[in-house]
Amino acid sequence: MLQTAFRLRFVRFVTVGVGAAALLLVLSYVLASIGLPPFAAGLIAYAVAFVVAYSAQRGWTFGAAHGHGHALPRYFVLQAGCALLSGVLAHIAVDRFQMSPLAMSVLITAVASTVSYVVSSLWVFPDKPGHGGGR
Q1: Three-state SS for 130?
Q2: Which end of the chain, N or C, is less surrounded by CB atoms within 10 Å?
Q3: How far is residue 67's CA from residue 33's CA, in Å, rounded to a whole number?
Q4: Distance between CA atoms of 43 and 28, rounded to whole angstroms?
Q5: CA of 127: how far to CAs of 15, 53, 64, 75, 131, in Å?
Q6: pLDDT per residue as tens digits for the range 51-87
Q7: CA of 36: how far to CAs of 25, 30, 31, 32, in Å?
Q8: Could you give the C-alpha distances from 10 to 5, 7, 101, 102, 107, in angstroms and in order?
Q9: How far apart are CA 42 and CA 118, in angstroms?
Q10: Torsions phi, psi of 100, nearest 5?
Q11: pTM score, two decimals?
Q12: Among 69, 1, 55, which Cα is nearest to 23's?
C-alpha cells in the first residue's frame, strides 16, 4: 500500500516537504544548541533544507526531467514567493481576522503548500511531452 501511495506525485511532494520541514527544525535546534547565534543557525538550517528539498523534489518527486539551469532559479523564486505570501497571510489572519496562532499557522501552511505544489507542477517542474505527468 505504501509503495502504491509513493507512485502518486502529490504523496512524494508532501513527503519531501514534511522531511525538509523536519530537517529545518532539527538542524536549527542543533546549531543553536551548540552555540551558533540564532540568526546564523536559522540561516544555515534553511539553506541546507532548501538544497535537500530542491534535490528531492527535482529528483524523486518530478523524476529529474529538468535541468538545474531551468529548475533551480524557478524553485528559488517560488520559495521566496511562498515565504512572502506566508508572511502577508499571517499578518492579515492575525491583524484583520484575529485568528489564533494555531489557526494562522494552519492557514499559511495549507495555502503555501498548495501554491508550492501547483506552481512546482506547472512552472518549476512542468511535465514534458511523453514524460507521464501526474504520476
Answers
A1: coil
A2: N
A3: 37
A4: 8
A5: 20, 19, 11, 15, 6
A6: 999 999 899 988 887 888 989 999 999 989 988 888 8
A7: 15, 9, 6, 5
A8: 9, 9, 27, 25, 19
A9: 27
A10: -70, 160
A11: 0.75
A12: 55
Neighbours of 70 (CB within 10 A): 12
Contact between 21 and 57 (Cβ < 8 Å): no
Could you give the CA distance from residue 21 to residue 27 in angstroms, rounded to a whole number?
A: 10
**Nine-digit cell string for 11:** 504523496
Q: Is 98 left (phi over 0), alpha (psi -120 to 50) or beta?
A: left
Total residues found in the chain within this entry: 135
* Residue 133, pLDDT score: 46
| pLDDT-flagged residues of the chain (< 50) | 130-135
Cα 97 to Cα 80, 129, 130: the distances in Å are 25, 44, 46
